[in-house]
Amino acid sequence: MSTALDLITRVRGVRGAMLVSADDGIVVAEQLMEGIKGGAVAALAASLAGRLRRAMEAAGTGTSVFWHLQAEQGALLVVPGGNAAGGILVVAVAEPDVNIGLVRLELLRAAESVV
Amino acid sequence: MADDIRALSAQLAQDPQSLVFLRLGEALRRKGQLEAALRVAMNGLERHPHLADAHDLYARILTDKHDYERAFDEWDMAVRIAPNHTGALKGLAFLYFKVGDLAQAEAHLESARKVEPDDPSIDQAIAMMRKGVSPPAPEQGAAPSPPSAAAASAAPTVAAPLDEARVFAGLEGANEGLLLIDGAGRVLGGALRNRSGSDVTDAVAAYLAGVSQEAARTAKLLGLGAWNGLSAEGQHGNVHLAHPTPEALLLVVRERGMPLGRLAILAQRATTMARRWLEKT
């Protein structure tokens, strides 16, 4: 698991990565820079992922394979691994100028390795 | 033509309040001097904000510049001021056709025909549209003339009621996959259908209620500042969420083939339109 997170945090601009239980929002593994409240972020990310999953399924787009929240000073990037309802979320917190495409690839790779 | 422009410019310089700016703006537009035409039209609009012809001129210039979104707003405004303004009706028909809303396009052309039943260009545009050919972008008459005083003074000042179905009118794919909801999950505009064609507007709106607040909390907790948008890639389609106002939430849904970056640009345009619409209501 830590190898999977290593690959994500090596990407320039990534401030941290986590594996989160999609069901209950609990941190399974984390590699975060100081100052990031892993537990709270995990809970909110899981909650947001749940809402998004239900909305996307209702809209007919199928479950999400990748999503990212863009903000003024950074981004939260998430890949739901395996069965999104009861699986693992691979989460990254990044700077605003991060290469989103590269982080996405590493998140997808990590999701494959941990599921 | 150059002499005309010089003469009209001189007239306008002598009497900046005069309506000669309409002829000057049109002459510049026809000559392809779009930036100059735009300046003339904007100056004229500042002095005559309730003149439908001024909005019509501005819209035609914007159309030449392919700025269809703003052109729609201007023609929409012209029709609100003067509901029988055939130039604006034809302009709106042209833009509705461009976004694939043939029913609205034809309805606007029919309205124009009722006002000017002898105008062959309207019949021609309807015929072209029915064959699937884009009607020509509306042109002012071959010999532009200042509007009649009656037309200008007949302008009502009370705007027509806002139509929620037109929140996104003029935008690429305005009739599909765009939904605007409030913080409680109530639909403000737009609609959604799933892949089998069933209306899923209410269900999706209900699931998205509260997402805006949750996204804001997450971004704040991470020290990321205010959130701007949320893009998601699905198995069969992509979505983008944005918030035109702190309470409202906009959802754009497109086929998987549309890359997330392009979807974000489309969502940005829809957000601007939704914000304007919300400000008007």
Mind explaining what this structure looks like?
- The complex is a heterodimer of chains A (115) and B (281).
- With 115 residues, chain A is an alpha+beta fold.
- Chain A has a single domain, classed as Dynein light chain 2a, cytoplasmic (Beta-Lactamase, 2-Layer Sandwich), CATH 3.30.450.30.
- Chain A has three helices and five strands.
- Chain A has a five-stranded antiparallel sheet, with helices on both faces.
- In chain A, strand 3 and strand 4 form a beta hairpin.
- In chain A, helix 1 (2-9) packs antiparallel against helix 3 (100-114).
- Chain A is globular, with a radius of gyration of 13 Å.
- The model of chain A has no long low-confidence stretch (mean pLDDT 89).
- Chain B is α+β, with helices and mostly antiparallel strands and 281 residues long.
- Chain B is 53% helix and 11% strand.
- In chain B, strands 2-1-5-4-3 form a five-stranded antiparallel sheet, sandwiched between helices.
- In chain B, helix 3 packs antiparallel against helix 4 (52-64).
- The longest helix of chain B has 21 residues, at 260-280.
- Chain B is globular, with a radius of gyration of 21 Å.
- The A-B interface holds A 35-37, 40-41, 44-45, 47-48, 51-52, 54-56, 58-76, 93 and B 192-196, 200, 203-204, 207-208, 210-211, 214-215, 217-219, 221-239, 251, 253, 256.
CATH superfamily of the largest domain in chain B: Tetratricopeptide repeat domain
**Unreliable spans of chain A:** none
Strand order of the largest sheet of chain B: 2-1-5-4-3
**CATH classification, class level of chain A:** Alpha Beta
Main sheet of chain A, how many strands, which sense, barrel?
5 strands, antiparallel
Global morphology of chain A: globular
Q: Roughly what percent helix of chain B?
A: 40-55%
